[in-house]
Specification:
elongated, 13% strand
């Protein structure tokens, strides 16, 4: 913010030019704000699905075969196939 004030006070001495730049900056800012306020598109209406399509489906477990979260994992030196989950 200080650099903008420095620019307006020291580099652009003309009051007329300073005012024109300030007005153009405000106009550009208002366009960017109004562009961001576009109305959202409404989603397509829900179309019901024929439930007869799901009668041939059967539940099956595809894994993982250990459940939950683990807080720690460790292995045993010298035994690469031995490890503990906790």
């Amino acid at each position: 913010m200080n650099s903008i004030l420095y620019l307006f006070k020291n580099i652009i001495p003309s009051v007329m030019l300073r005012t024109a730049l300030l007005i153009s900056y405000c106009i550009l800012l208002s366009f960017s704000v109004s562009y961001g306020q576009k109305k959202k598109e409404t989603p397509a209406a829900f179309t019901p699905v024929d439930t007869a399509l799901f009668h041939g489906l059967e539940w099956r477990n595809i894994g993982p075969f250990r459940g939950g979260r683990s807080a720690a994992v460790t292995g045993v030196k010298g035994k690469p196939g031995l490890y503990y989950f906790g």
